[in-house]
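re the bet — no i am not wrong, look at it urself. input seq straight from the record:
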Amino acid sequence: MNSVSLSLLIVCSLALAQAASWRQYEDYVESDEYVRPSWTHRHSEMWPCDVADYPAAHLLIHKVENRLDSIDNEQMRKNIVDYVVDRLRQCKTDEQMGEHCVKRSIGYAMSFISRHKRQYQQY
């Protein structure tokens, strides 16, 4: 067996193993034993339901909440949340949240947060 065939065999085996574990994860999430992480909780004072009710938005919300933990200034926190909510609303079309749009928004949101933190530290 040449190296190309061996490489193909290994890649296919890994892909099948990944597919099987993904299916087991989906079955587990649908079961009663699964406890959702706190950041997937839909209703919060910080995040309006019109964006937080979409599972696609949870990744961005989680990342922003992690960054907000290190920010004490309430006005800055509010500005950041407002910005992210606006970005998420732009990702909605026909009552669907565009997953790719949300993923692109992660970079914009992190940049916005960094810029605001730098501006705040200057004053």
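see?? The mean pLDDT is 81. told u. also Residues 60 and 106 are 6 Å apart (CA to CA). so pay up
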